[in-house]
Specification:
The chain is mainly α and about 525 residues long. The protein is built from 25 helices and two strands.
Length: about 525
């Protein structure tokens, strides 16, 4: 038990609860502070501390202990703060906790005027500075200032000693881990920032490396962003909740991608302007996605909690789509990087992306009062990128049209809320699709068997997580029939594509009607 926790416990035991006439309990103290009994128990046992930035919590704690007759004097309050390495109460806080005592003391003392206004101002600035720092550091600096002139060597040594006394092995380990994440980020993203690529093979290697790293690095950032000892989440019993951790990882992905996109834009713009690339700038720039990833990991859970007053998967599940940004962007750059090297292509892509995003958010704000982009818009955005990539990889018109038709049908049905797709269902669908693709690649019959088993498992257990209406399966059947016709009828590519588009449109409109 820490000295601060022991003192809190002692003062609490001295308090008398007027409602019961008995000792103030942890539950009652937690209720008065707006915290949980578990948080108060952790404070008293020294397992956690009130954050120094939560000054109002400390002042409220002292006021409760004083009002309930557990703490009698200002010296006891400052002793408690000193035990926790908090700064002492300033004049405003003293009046809040001990209004009667401070009023009496103020009436008996007047500020000295013999040294003039200049000395008074200097003393006030000195008091303001001393109140803003840790009390123990204050004592060290005061002791170091005594002695022969100049005092700065002693003060410098005292500050370094104070810092290193608090530097634990855990702090060093976390700092080293963050440095490794930074260096790993630099190693993974720097090849994709070196324009122009020598050939298509170098572009493929750079973007594959980025695609893999974009799925791993935000996870590392999320792991290093701890919520367990956070006073805010402890207060709401969410410090170790799975949903808090999930949104922490989600925020890390969002921030990481935003940081990388900013670096990518500057790198490509620098190439277009003929600015010579400097290797160490990539190393410095790698701090941006790491820093924004950490900021996102901290902000996203809190912003969702502030918006909804709770944390639930259903409130922000759509933003897990950001997990696909890295692989999709890698495929897009790999397929279109020669066009990106042209000034017109670069300008058009970035302006189009910014305009579509801003316009969509503005339209949503006008229609629904919220700028959150719905799930079906993300399907259209990523589906468009996938369709463009497919168009560069195949000469078969029907392959491109059928893919676009599937994406449009899925987006329309999702907008009509006729598709049930939960987060668990999305993850299962992705895993199942990957497994099915591997099985078909190994052996066709193996793929058929696995597909049958997966269909039975979905019908038995998965319908509450994933449900697609008959219209979508009708479009899938139309894709299969069209593929068969294209193989059997070589001159039918354009006609089959037109027929498939007409059938898909009629099925969607008929069901809508």
């Amino acid at each position: 038990m820490s000295q601060f926790g022991q003192l809190v416990r002692d003062y609490r035991i001295r308090c008398t609860d007027p409602q019961t006439g008995k000792t103030l309990t942890q539950e009652r103290l937690a209720e008065l502070l707006g915290y949980t009994p578990q948080a108060v128990s952790l404070w008293e046992r020294g397992r956690s501390k009130i954050h120094a930035d939560d000054r109002h919590v400390l002042v409220s704690l002292l006021k409760i202990l004083h009002d309930y007759a557990g703490m009698q004097s200002l010296s006891e309050a400052n002793a408690l703060l000193s035990a926790g390495n908090y700064r002492l109460l300033d004049d405003v806080e003293q009046r809040q906790v001990f209004p009667d005592a401070i009023t009496e003391a103020a009436s008996q003392s007047q500020p000295a005027k013999s040294n003039g206004q200049r000395q008074t101002a200097r003393l006030s600035l000195r008091e303001l500075f001393l109140q803003s720092i840790n009390e123990e550091l204050h004592t060290l600096l005061t002791e170091a200032a005594e002695g022969p002139s100049p005092p700065w060597p002693r003060i410098l040594v005292a500050v370094f000693r104070w810092l290193f006394d608090r530097l634990t092995s855990v702090h060093v380990a976390r700092a080293l881990l963050w440095m490794w994440v930074w260096l790993l980020t630099w190693w993974i993203i720097s090849p994709s920032l070196r324009w122009p690529f020598i050939d298509q093979e170098q572009a493929r290697e750079a973007m594959v490396l980025y695609a893999g790293g974009s799925l791993i690095l935000p996870l590392f950032i999320g792991v290093l962003t701890s919520t367990q000892n956070n006073e805010f989440w402890q207060r709401h019993n969410l410090a170790t909740a799975g949903v808090t951790r999930l949104y922490t990882y989600q925020g890390a992905f969002i921030g990481f991608y935003l940081g990388y996109m900013a670096i990518f834009a500057f790198s490509l713009g620098g190439y277009s302007l003929g600015i010579r690339q400097v290797a160490w700038l990539d190393l410095a720039a790698a701090m941006l996605p790491v820093g924004l990833g950490y900021a996102g990991a901290r902000l996203v859970p809190y912003n969702l909690w502030r918006a909804y007053g709770r944390l639930r998967i259903s409130d922000g599940a759509i933003f897990f789509i950001f997990l696909l940004v890295g692989p999709c962007w890698s495929a897009f750059v790999y397929g279109f990087y020669p066009w990106l090297l042209t000034p017109d292509g670069e300008f058009l892509i970035f302006m189009s992306a910014a305009t579509i995003l801003a316009g969509t958010m503005a339209w949503r704000q006008h229609r629904t009062g919220t700028s959150i982009i719905p799930s079906y818009w993300w399907v259209i955005i990523y589906g468009t990128m996938l369709t463009l990539y497919e168009a560069t990889q195949t000469a078969n018109l029907f392959d491109v049209v059928s893919l676009a038709g599937l994406i449009v049908a899925f987006a329309v049905l999702l907008a009509q809320e006729r598709i049930r797709l939960t987060l668990v269902g999305s993850i299962g669908l992705l895993i199942g699709s990957g497994l099915l693709a591997i099985c078909f690649w190994l052996n066709v019959w193996l793929g058929v068997v696995v597909a049958g088993v997966m269909a039975l498992a979905w019908w038995r257990w998965g319908r509450k997580f994933v449900w697609l209406p008959l219209v979508f399966w009708g479009v899938v059947i139309a894709v299969g029939l069209g593929s068969w016709l294209v193989r059997r009828w070589p001159a039918s590519d354009v006609l089959v594509s037109l027929g498939f588009s007409l059938v898909t449109l009629l099925m969607i409109l008929w069901r809508r009607k």
